What does this fold into?
Amino acid sequence: MLHRARFARPILWLGLMAGTVFSGLAVVRAGLAQEPAAKGSAFAATASAPANSDMIRDVVAGVKNGEHALYLYERIERVEVRKDANDGPPQSVKVSRVVPAGTGIDKIPLGADGKPSDADAYRNELTKLLNALEWAAQTGQPQQRDAYQKVQKKQKDRDELIEATKSAFLFTYVDSGPRGERMLLKYRMEPNPSFKSTNRATSIFSRVKGFVWVDETSHELARVEGEVTEDISLGVFLAKVYKGSHFMQERYEVAPGLWLPSFTQYDFDGRKFFSSFGVHEKTFYSGYKKIGTPAEAILQIQSEIAGLESRKSAQNRQ
It folds into this structure.
């Protein structure tokens, strides 16, 4: 089976980028009129106002900061894998503590209850993480410099995708409704027929449509749902994602002004070479905690390891 990172995440990212950039248009709409924008006019009605571009840039900057925050915040991820989207209990469940380590992301296995199932193994994983953080915090090493350049390029590519969605999609106001104590604005997201793709990643925009929900007060993306409208060929991997594949994500405010995912679902079907495959996963994100840069994270992990060793010593003395 083709790993989802080869195609599922890029497609989800593209849909999410459209929704996050559109949150900027929600700022404009709220500032110009009390009534919902006319269908099909969300962008055209605001593009000529001089101050609008400033507001949109501010919101896009916030979205980019949220993406970059994933390299500073640890979290718990619970991944449920199913053979089919309509299956009941998952085939497998994988729970991990996901910790940014400067030049990469470390995943420490946890039990199904979200806690370490083996204290010694968990301590060993923390020690490996500490070593990685100490290496990442050093300076002057060619390999380290190369690793950071790769991270920076990835962030740059993501930022460029966010920018591209300003012209890649058209948005139409649909409705509004509450989610808890917040009011969300719902918009239809459709490809812009006049958009000219500049690379393979942006070419997928024309084959994705869906809906986005924007928090009315903070102008942040709260939810996105999308579907693939035409088969997507991924020639490098000799694979194809079929029309009708779906994705969705829910996002919440995890810190003042910072919105990050709480739930993601992929339901993709397609083929690789001559074999069919399906990716049906649900991922739950929880326990967001800022761990900071490698230099900042080192102190936290050292303290955690010391606490585990102290408890083990106390148990051995009993």
